[in-house]
Design goal:
Chain A: Belongs to the ETF beta-subunit/FixA family. The structure holds 2 protein chains of 2 kinds. Chain A has 6 helices and 13 strands. Chain A is of the alpha/beta class. In chain A, helix 2 packs across helix 5 and helix 3 packs across helix 4. In chain B, about 25% of the residues lie in helices and about 30% in strands. Classes of the chains: A alpha/beta, B alpha/beta.
């Protein structure tokens, strides 16, 4: 079985983002970019499944401008066998990404497609569900534990839901999206970083895949959230209780 | 305008977040025909339908999909149901709350309908103009939907408070959905096994008036019980940071933050919480924020209305002793 993992290049999670003064978006020039943390977890899960002998190959894919190749190179250094880059400068919304992923699944025919549950830039939490719908594959979203049954071709997935943990059983091929506690992603070691340089990154364009990039959405403006007004430091529990009672009137 | 709401129900009642979705639908337009879609099986579905029909005067129809396929919240059959209902109803908008139920189903249905959904809407400015947080709430993005119908939204419950209405509200008709033409292809590929929930007498984290949160500084599950005791005294819900959940002090469903629950209570009290941006994303809209931390430089103090620099192992017992009982 082959596993495909979707990788998104985003502003590094530790960067304090800045809204552009013309309100067109968030500053990404000269800002550290990294692999979306949830995508790292997705890749780690794929690598673990391969190491357990259930999969033979891990293919990482990313879409967007040329720099996505850097993120794909990181995925190869972590252990992916090869990578695919869909090269486009157009703004990609989840529906387009899902269509491109579906087209790549039709080419590669993986038994599992793993994605992060959301990207930490747009926080959409949509792409995995959408590509699962387009493929008519079952989905195990927000996964915190995945157990594969080799014989029955079934995945048992623990999902983090509002009320606790939900367990579902889904037939393969399937789409998984990863939650935080699924695993702890590995670091790329120096020898593997060197090895990754010779691994193949194949390039496609949306035209090659017969996907028309369409957008149902227009960003009107991006603004900073309203600031909370500065609070006060209190010096004792008594003062705190007094403030909550008589000033804020919440207790 | 005509809006379909993907309703959630439990024990014969609509869930609170569905009432928030109805509030959001009322923001779209004064002239909006609102239908509620309920699905499931058994007598509790019928009771929930009766509740739905009279829960708000703006509801013009309750649609009932009765089938064992919808007993559990599996995305595969539910997305097909939304697709079917949209085909018959031709709604301009479809709304769900942005909990794990809606987030699992709505995007899948949107893909089947070939439209782009909009997640986590916090403000509706016009029928097709919405504000949603991005980058963990560190920026707000105003988007215009320019695609074809339906415009599909998941709404953040805390941003659309329920406005109570007079009890003489009308009762909307309840109509059954004709399921004979539903596309069943692929829906048997997923099966519900179980749900593990921690029983608790405390109010639900998402709707509580007061939330008491503990961070890694609590140091152990045993110590975390102090937070729970204080919550009990105040009739509050308990929250936790990612670090506290990862360390195993409390179960994952208590996590507040970018990837956990979003809360906006009247009073949010954070103990031993440093205030990582991912955590602030989940609570920054709380009305009054109290932070107790040993580290005077902790970022949580930048959003706190009242900060107390101190050792939580001394502060919490003192609060337990001096705070008034819940009313």
């Amino acid at each position: 079985m082959k596993i495909m993992v979707a990788i998104k290049r985003v502003v590094d999670y530790a960067v304090k983002i800045r809204v552009k003064s013309d309100k067109t978006g968030v500053e990404t020039n000269n800002v550290k970019m990294s692999m979306n943390p949830f995508c790292e977890i997705a890749l780690e899960e794929a690598l673990k499944i391969k190491e357990s002998g259930f999969a033979s190959e891990v293919v990482s894919v990313s879409m967007g401008p040329t720099q996505c190749v850097d993120t794909l190179r990181t995925s190869l250094a972590m252990g992916a066998d090869r990578a695919i880059h869909v090269d486009t400068k157009e703004m990609l919304y989840p529906l387009s990404v899902a269509k491109l992923l579906k087209a790549l699944v039709d080419v590669e025919k993986p038994g599992l497609l793993i994605l992060g549950k959301q990207a930490i830039d747009d926080d959409c939490n949509q792409t995995g569900q959408m590509v699962a719908g387009l493929l008519n594959w079952p989905q195990g979203t927000f996964a915190s534990k995945v157990v594969l049954d080799k014989e029955k071709h079934v995945a048992t997935v623990d999902r983090e839901v509002d009320g606790g943990i939900e367990t579902v059983s889904i037939d393969l091929p399937a789409v998984l999206t990863t939650d935080l506690r699924l695993n702890q992603p590995r670091y790329a070691t120096l020898p593997n970083i060197m090895k990754a340089k010779s691994k193949v990154i194949k390039k496609f364009t949306p035209q090659d895949l017969n996907v028309e990039i369409r957008s149902d959405l227009e960003v009107v403006e991006v603004t900073e959230p309203p600031k909370r007004k500065a609070g006060v430091l209190v010096s004792s529990v008594d003062e705190l209780i007094d403030k909550l009672k008589n000033e804020a009137r919440v207790i | 305008l005509s809006t379909l709401i993907l309703a959630e129900h439990e024990g014969g009642f609509l869930k609170a977040q569905t009432l928030n979705a109805i509030a959001a639908a009322n923001f779209l337009s004064k002239d909006n025909s609102i239908s509620l879609l309920l699905a499931g099986s058994g007598p509790s579905l019928q009771e929930a339908a009766a509740h739905a029909a009279s829960c708000h005067p703006s509801i013009s129809q309750v649609l009932l999909a009765k089938s064992d396929k919808f007993t559990y919240p599996l995305a595969e059959p539910w997305a097909k149901l939304l697709q079917l209902v949209q085909k018959t109803g031709g709604y301009s908008h479809i709304i769900s709350a942005s909990g794990s139920f809606g987030k699992n189903i709505l995007p899948r249905a949107a893909a089947l309908l070939d439209v782009s959904p909009i997640s986590d809407v916090i403000k509706i400015s016009e029928p097709n103009l919405f504000v949603r947080p991005i980058y963990a709430g560190n920026a707000l993005c105003t988007v215009r939907y320019v695609g074809s119908n339906p415009c599909m939204l998941s709404i953040r419950s805390t941003s659309f408070p329920v406005i109570s209405v007079d009890s003489k509200s009308n009762t909307a008709p309840i109509d059954e959905v004709d399921l004979s033409t539903i596309d069943e292809d692929g829906i048997s590929k997923s099966r519900y096994i179980k749900q593990t929930t921690q029983e608790s007498e405390r109010p639900d984290l998402g709707n509580a008036r007061v939330v008491i949160t503990g961070g890694r500084a609590l140091k152990s599950a045993e110590n975390f019980k102090m937070v729970e005791q204080l919550a009990e005294k105040l009739g509050a819900a308990v929250g936790a940071t990612r670090a506290a959940v990862d360390a195993g002090y409390v179960p994952n469903e208590l996590q507040v933050g970018q990837t956990g629950k979003i809360v906006a209570p009247e009073l949010y009290m954070a103990f031993g919480v440093s205030g990582a941006i991912q955590h602030l994303a989940g609570m920054r809209d709380s009305k009054v924020i109290v932070a107790v931390n040993k580290d005077a430089d902790a970022p949580i103090f930048q959003v706190a209305d009242y900060g107390l620099v101190g050792d939580l192992f001394e502060v919490i017992p003192e609060l337990l002793e001096k705070m008034p009982e819940k009313k």
